Amino acid sequence: MAGKDVVEAYDVSSEAARALVAAVVAKAAELGRAVSVAVVDSAGTLVAFERMDGALRFSASLASEKARTSAAFGRPTAAMEELMTDRPGFAASFVHEGGWYLGRGGHPLLRDGRPVGGIGVSGDSAEHEDHWAREVAGAFNA
User: Fold this and answer.
1) In terms of C-beta density within 10 A (0-12 exposed, 13-18 middle, 19 or more buried), how is residue 2 classed?
2) What's the pLDDT at 3?
3) Which of 41-50, 73-82, 107-116 comes out lowest in average pLDDT?
4) What pLDDT, in 10s, does the model give residues 12-49?
5) Cα 46 vs. chain centroid, distance in angstroms?
6) What is the 3-state secondary structure (H, E, C) of 34-72?
């Protein structure tokens, strides 16, 4: 039975998570923006986080929700929004049930096609948030 009753899991390291947060913070600072950035592991547990000075307070929880959603489903949060477009009733109950986020700004962190975590960015325009999360996750996933 050895090996059949345990599943090996991989998670983003704390060192990598801090580097991902720092990369987004640097990109936002270059443009004079203030955002919150969260990185979670494959279980959705917070590994690294920063709310830049001046970032909207509510952006802290949204960044975490975006990271958790992208990690859990292994896809960008924007793709989750697209899946729910024609199902507003289901989308409302879905978000309420799990604290999921349907919108832009969250991207999965992958190794060998498997989610090892997620990154979420909040506090700026949806375009900026999604761009920064996608760019940083893309470099990690490469």
Assistant:
1) exposed
2) 65
3) 73-82
4) 999 999 999 999 999 999 999 999 999 999 999 999 99
5) 10
6) CCEEEEEECCCCEEEEEECCCCCCCHHHHHHHHHHHHHH
Burial class (CB in 10 A: 0-12, 13-18, 19+), 8: exposed
Report the C-alpha gap between 132 and 23 in whole angstroms: 9
Q: CB of 71 within 8 A of CB of 118?
A: yes
In contact, 70 and 82? CB cutoff 8 Å: no
Closest CA to 109 of 47, 41, 59, 63: 41
Query: Pick from 63, 138, 76: which is nearest to 107 by CA?
Result: 76
Measured CA distances, 118 to 4, 21, 30, 57, 90 (Å):
27, 11, 23, 21, 24
Distance from chain centroid for Cα 85: 20
Q: Which of 58, 59, 76 is nearest to 67 (CA)?
A: 76
